[in-house]
Amino acid sequence: MKFRYSAAGPDGDVLVGFVEADDEAAARHQLQARGIQPELIEPAADDSAAVVPEKQTSARLTRSEQTEAIGQIGDIISVGIPLSAGLWTLAEEMPSKRSRAVFRSMSLQLDEGHSLDDVLSGHADSLPRWLSAVLKSGAETGRVAESVRHYVQFTRLRSAQLGRLAVCLLYPAILVLAALVMTGFLLMGLLPMFRKIFEDFGTQLPGATEAMFNISDIVVPLIEDWYITVPVMIVVFTVTRSLLRTFIGPSGLRRLLYEVPIIGQMMKFTALSEFCHLLALLVENQTPLPRAFDLVSQGVRDPNLSLGAAEAAAQLTRGIPATRLRAFVPELPDELLRIPGWESGERDLADSLRAASDVFCIQSEVTARSIAGFVAPVAVLAVAIGVGFFVLAMFMPLVSLLNDLS
User: What is the Cα Rg of the chain in Å?
Assistant: First the structure.
C-alpha cells in the first residue's frame, strides 16, 4: 500500500513524498529508519493523482561533487541497499547543501514510484550525461557497481588530464593577454600624445605614422565603446553559430571545428578518449555491441560522436559488421575504426578500446603542448614587431621635427 507523507527537512524545507508499506505504522517505522520524522502520513491516491513534491531542485553539482557522489552510489548498490534509501542516506552525508538537495529529490521521486530513467532525466542538469548510460548497462547486465567504480576512476584520470591541459595553455594565454594590454596602452596612452605634438608643429607624417594613426582611429573607438562592442560580438557569434547549427547541424559544426589546425585535433582526441573509455566499459559489461553504441550515443558530449554512435547502433542491428561501419557512418572518425579488435571477442575489444583511450588522451595532451609551444613565441614575436613598428612610426616624424627646429 502506498502512503503519502510530509516532514520538515533539516534545512527548514517541507519534504513531501510517498512510501510503500503494509500499514501506517510500518510506513512510519520505515521513514524513521531513514532519519525522517513524518508530521503527516495518509493513504495516497491512485497514481494518476500523485502529488508532485513541493520542493524540487535543479542545482548543479560541481565536477568533484559528481565524481564523489557517483562513487558512493556504486558503493550503495554493491552492498544491496535500496537505491532510494541509499540516496537519502547519502544526502545526509554530503557536505554541500546543493548536493543534499539533489539526492533528496532523487530519493523522493524513487519512493513515488518513478523509474530510474525518469529520475535521471529529471536531474540531467545536475548529473553527468554518461551516468544514465552506465546505470542502464549495469542494470541490464547486473554489474552496476563495477561499472560505476570503473567510470569514477576514469573521471578522476580525466580531471587530472584537464588540469594538465589547463597548465599547458595557461602560459600562452597570459602572453596573449599581455600583448593585448600592451597594444591598448600604446594606442590609447602614448599615441594621442605623439599625435598632438605632430599636429601642433604641423609635421609632415610618413606613411608608417599615418598607418599607425589610421589603426588607432579604428581600434580605439571599439575599445572605448566596449559596452557596445562586446554585446555586438556576442550577438554575431551567437547568430553565426545558430546558422551553422541550422544548416549543417551540431555534428557538422563539430566536424568543422575538427578541421581547425591544432586546436581542432586537441578537441577531437579529447572526445575520442572519452568515447573509447565509455564504450570499453560497456563492452566489458558484456553489453551487446549495438546496445553499447546506443548507450554511448546518450552518454558522450560530442554531438558528432553521439550521432555516429546512434547510426552505428542502427547499422549493427541491421547486420552490418563493425569493420564496415566506415562506409555507412561517416560521423565516426577513421582513428576510431582503425582500432584493432572489432572482430575479436569482447575482452580483446574492451582492452583495445581502453588502450586507444589512453593513446588519445596522450595525443590530446601533446597537442595542447604544441599549442603552447606555438602560441608563446608567436605572441612574443607579435609584441616585439608591434612595439618596434610603433617606435619606428613615432621616431621618424620626431627626427623630421628636430631637423625643422634646428
Answer: 30
Whether residues 95 and 181 share a domain: the answer is no
Statement to judge: residues 235 and 384 lie in one domain: yes
pLDDT in tens, 211-256: 888 888 888 888 888 889 889 999 998 999 888 888 888 888 888 8
d(CA 358, CA 189): 50
Q: What is the pLDDT of residues 66-82, one digit of tens each?
A: 666 666 666 666 666 66
The residues pairing with 38 across neighbouring beta strands, listed in sequence order, are 7
Residue span of the structural domain in which 333 resides: 129-406
- Residue 216 and residue 311 share a domain: yes
Is this model's pTM higher than 0.70 or not? Answer: no
Verify that 137 and 122 share a domain, yes or no.
Answer: no
Q: In the block, which residue shows the cell 593577454?
A: 177
User: Is the same domain home to 139 and 6?
Assistant: no
Q: Do 398 and 367 belong to one domain? A: yes
H or E element in which residue 42 lies: strand 38-43
Please give the grid coordinates belonging to residue 3: 502512503
Render pLDDT for 251-273 as a digit per residue (tens, 0 to 9): 888 888 888 888 888 888 888 88
Whether residue 147 contacts residue 138, with contact meaning beta carbons closer than 8 Å, is answered with yes
- What is the total count of domains within the chain? 2
Q: Same domain for 249 and 232?
A: yes
Q: Which of 352, 369, 361 is nearest to 154 (CA)?
A: 361
Separation between Cα atoms, residue 398 and residue 317, nearest integer Å: 78
Closest CA to 365 of 157, 191, 89: 157
DSSP structure class, residue 18: E
Q: Is 53 helix (H, G, I), strand (E, B) or coil?
A: coil
Residue with cell 597537442: 367
State pLDDT tens for residues 340-388: 877 765 667 888 888 888 888 888 888 878 877 777 788 788 888 888 8
What nine digits make up the cell of 87? 540516496
